[in-house]
Amino acid sequence: MLNLDTHILIHALADKITPSERRILSKSPWGISAIVLWEIEKLNSLKRIELDLSDFDVKQVLQKITIFPITLDVCINTRKLDFKSDPADEIIAATSLTHNIKLLTRDKKILGSKIVPLARG
Predict the structure, then answer these.
(1) Cβ of 74: how many Cβ atoms within 10 Å?
(2) Domain membership flag for residue 93
(3) 117 in any annotated domain
(4) Strand order from edge to edge, sheet including 66-68
(5) Residue 68: is its pLDDT beyond 80?
(6) pTM (2 decimals)?
(7) Which of 7, 27, 76, 96 is the most buried (most CB within 10 A)?
């Protein structure tokens, strides 16, 4: 299982990923933190992306992805993070920490973490 951050999921759905990301994504089932859905909706409402969660095809893809809830343990594990970022990124990283699953991200702050399990090509 992989945990995808918001931008990786957006790029994967638009088929705009790097060859290294494609290799990583092809080897494992995908998961996302529930906050990724909120971020996508927010970015769409701000007209920063065109990805629409109510689109039939998008819904079909999302039904195949594990969605991790924002649990008490995830929230508590944000305390353990060795970086500071926006709350959504911290929840995404804490989700990987809580479930011990690798996170695929391009975010430089998260990539600098020594404790978040990261998927690397």
Answers:
(1) 23
(2) yes
(3) no
(4) 66-68, 30-33, 2-4, 102-104
(5) yes
(6) 0.95
(7) 96
| Structural domain harbouring 75 | 2-111
Map tokens 């769409």 to a residue.
Answer: 44
When divided into structural domains, the chain yields a total of 1
Q: How far apart are CA 103 and CA 9, in angstroms?
A: 11
Residue 116 inside a domain? The answer is no
In a domain, 14, yes or no: yes
Instruction: Tell how strand 102-104 and strand 66-68 pair up.
Output: unpaired
The pLDDT-based confidence of 22 (bands split at 50, 70, 90) is: very high
Query: In whole angstroms, what is the distance from residue 32 CA to residue 36 CA?
Result: 6
Using a CB cutoff of 8 Å and minimum separation of 24, what contacts does 102-108 make?
A: 102/2, 102/3, 102/28, 103/2, 103/3, 103/4, 103/5, 104/2, 104/3, 104/4, 104/5, 104/8, 104/21, 104/24, 104/25, 105/4, 105/5, 105/7, 105/8, 106/5, 106/7, 106/8, 107/5, 107/7
CATH number of the domain residue 41 falls in? 3.40.50.1010
